[in-house]
Amino acid sequence: MPALPLPPGSTIGILGGGQLGRMLALAAGRLGFDVAILEPEPNAPASRVAAHTVVGAYDDPTALAELAKLASVVTYEFENVPAAAVEHLTSLGVQVAPGALALAVAQDRVAEKTFLNGAGVPTVAFAAADSAEAAREAVAAMGAPVLMKTRREGYDGKGQRWVEHIADAPAAFEAVGGKPVILEAPADFVRELSIIAARGRDGGIAVYPLAENHHEKGVLRRSFAPAEVSKDTAAQAERIAAQILGALDYVGVIGIELFEMQGGKLLVNEIAPRVHNTGHWTMDGCEVDQFEQHIRAVAGWPLGPTHAHARVEMLNLLGDEASAWAKLAGEPETRIHLYGKHEARPGRKMGHINRLRPL
Amino acid sequence: MPALPLPPGSTIGILGGGQLGRMLALAAGRLGFDVAILEPEPNAPASRVAAHTVVGAYDDPTALAELAKLASVVTYEFENVPAAAVEHLTSLGVQVAPGALALAVAQDRVAEKTFLNGAGVPTVAFAAADSAEAAREAVAAMGAPVLMKTRREGYDGKGQRWVEHIADAPAAFEAVGGKPVILEAPADFVRELSIIAARGRDGGIAVYPLAENHHEKGVLRRSFAPAEVSKDTAAQAERIAAQILGALDYVGVIGIELFEMQGGKLLVNEIAPRVHNTGHWTMDGCEVDQFEQHIRAVAGWPLGPTHAHARVEMLNLLGDEASAWAKLAGEPETRIHLYGKHEARPGRKMGHINRLRPL
Hints:
Number of helices of chain A: 11
Strand content of chain A: 25-35%
Mean pLDDT of chain A: 96
Keywords (chains A, B): ATP-binding, Ligase, Nucleotide-binding, Purine biosynthesis
Protein name (chains A, B): N5-carboxyaminoimidazole ribonucleotide synthase
Number of strands of chain A: 18
GO molecular function (chains A, B): 5-(carboxyamino)imidazole ribonucleotide synthase activity
Structural class of chain A: alpha+beta
CATH architecture of the largest domain in chain A: 2-Layer Sandwich
Helix content of chain A: 25-40%
EC number (chains A, B): 6.3.4.18
Oligomer: homodimer
Subunit structure (chains A, B): Homodimer.
């Protein structure tokens, strides 16, 4: 196992070469680290700012061994990392952070909500179903409407649908893939918020101000941060973050999506064991952004400050919206971040902007 | 010639793979550009965060041709780029910024001061001497003491010495290398200041607040920014920057070192046609730092805002001072930047910190 804190000049491995890996690599570079990316696609966004890239599948033992030779510590930019990959890296003497428990919980929506409730963190009511008939029975027990989602995979609104009547449940089960599902009671929320938090190897916790998030077609469109929330709401969110981080014995940055209910109660919608799109505002609104914070945590460094020094509106640039770069670059209040993706497919996250206002 | 403004996804070439090249590459990455480094050493600090590296001498036509194939626009991190390299790249259809005039002026201290005075910018009195005897005559004409410097090369206080008596001039001439020199009248300055400024391809100018600089043994130790200066001093500095940038038809960021004289008059000590160590404070004190500003300028993008949002003390980490990284990383007011250099030779610039206070 590597000596921690990890000295500058060491190499940090990242599973995944997309924009989150790229922004992590840029942050690691600022701190004097080298980065090694493992990613199936050659020439990925993160690879182009990293010292090393291993091109291979995430579960390819040869590729993982190559990564383990390069890197002292490995992290990841997406939660669907195969559990076997983490085990293999660990067996090769590489520390993987966040750890296996966080991944297991984040990969299965039933395990996630079960874990959250067990840690004392409220969520919507839910049930699991492994067959069309079981789905029908569960909807009958919960009452319609319910939101049906595949237990595993699916993101940005994919693999989910509303079941409006009990009788529709079996067809919905087949429509989302005929695989095990979770059924979630509707959350009659006022707003969607999120909190980005970090936990260091020493158990220390750092929490950013809340963001208020707006989705379109299941994809994050805008975040406003710091969100205007009551002291009680902020305290609730910080308590939730601390409970989750502690219960997972977590190391790194986590994104926690919250529903704010009428009356102010917060429910956790989902957790992402990684840097998070709703934390991109920290790149221009905080002294230490979520990417540097994550690198600090996985490297065993002390966590940095999390207070905001500006009010930020973060806007994702989807598909050909990024072609407005010249106009956006000319707006004095706008900081622009582009991911180096060559093909602007519709809805693809090509970059984001942070529009700043004084606090 | 490439279409400007240069679209994201394009490749920007950088001559030089040291820390300035590295921080330029990180800034280019944030904007969605790829970077190609040309540098004689393999595995240089900038190469490890760049998509491409051409390992070769700066004046090697094969290496330059390879760089020209990769990059639409080329810039540099040091002012001693051979003029022939710029000519060769230009002949291959690559735009080099800043241009040949800025380089020529910055490479020869006599040309530099002659240019400055010609542009209406005050400097200390000076004379040129090409021989030991000419040096003696010049000192006799100016009066001792004078500061003798080689006309070309020399940085961080190397290749210079004080001549206290007329009779010492010939020996001093031999001691600094027996090559053409400049003799400078002493500047009885109150403070050393600097101004970091940028000029875009459209002729637009952006100027950062002044920094107050403290050197030790000829090497920058600390900068304080924004420096506490009078409105008149700030206006003088901005006027000087505008005169220099305009007269050079400059594109990019320039560092202008100033002497503040008793009574407030500013003299230009020297100019550096590149991002500058006294501008590192902008990385944490401004929304758009000098590195992104330089990339914006050479890419033909609009320049970004330059106001400070914090008061910064920048401290260079020289030699093994960088080994205090763990302690420094734990200071909440301190942002740490490390350059990924493996060997901490005495006096070598290994990184810097920016300590922040509210404005």
